[in-house]
Amino acid sequence: MAEIQQPPLNWEASATATHPQVSSTLPPEVETCLKNARFLHLATCDALYPHVSLMNYTYLPSTPYEPNPVIIMTTNPSSKKTLNLMNNPRVSLLVHDWVSHRPPTRVPDPTRESSPPPQATRSSLASLLLNINTSALSSISATINGTARIIERGSEEEAWCKDRHLENNTFGDQVREEQGVFGAPQNPASTEGDGGASCFIEGEEVRVMLVGVKECRIADWKGGVKDWVIVHPEEQDQWGRGAMLNGIS
pTM for this one? Predict the structure, then answer.
């Protein structure tokens, strides 16, 4: 049996002040998580309360317009998150590789509806997914801080980002297959062709949002954390000689 490789991180207790690693890229664990997760949580804030949205997204280590890691999302110009961004472009994102469906409790609760729906128990694949050893699959969650901007409408950058975002969120038959596995009613009108992606990416009023990644905090299932700061390689000097670039001093 192959040995399980430990993450190349020095974990610290989450309540302590950590020593951030300085890098021009995100850690491999976070990149893998971003490439495999279906959604992320976007937190924006006005002057009073944070506002959290569940978002489709596209992660790119760089673009022809941005040398550092970015995350592409789309938004309605009249939405709460867009209004928040106009006043405060600083955002936080949460992405994780945990199995998100809540497993059954030891004592059945008749008042709680199960998720996925009861029909999923008829599928052997669904049963496998629901009863799988989550501790073997789950490893990290990552909180990513950055600055968001709405890309200029009609620009080459907007067109390029929309194309990449649509490519990354076009699922087609996979969406219908997932609905069948978990017992959800299939709606061909909402999943035909591109899996319904174009309605929230190519709509006439849709705006493209780009988040430039600035910081990242990785947490493991034991509560240990490690902080990363994303900088240009030439900016390493301002962190001092003891700083680490790409995790290496």
Answer: 0.72
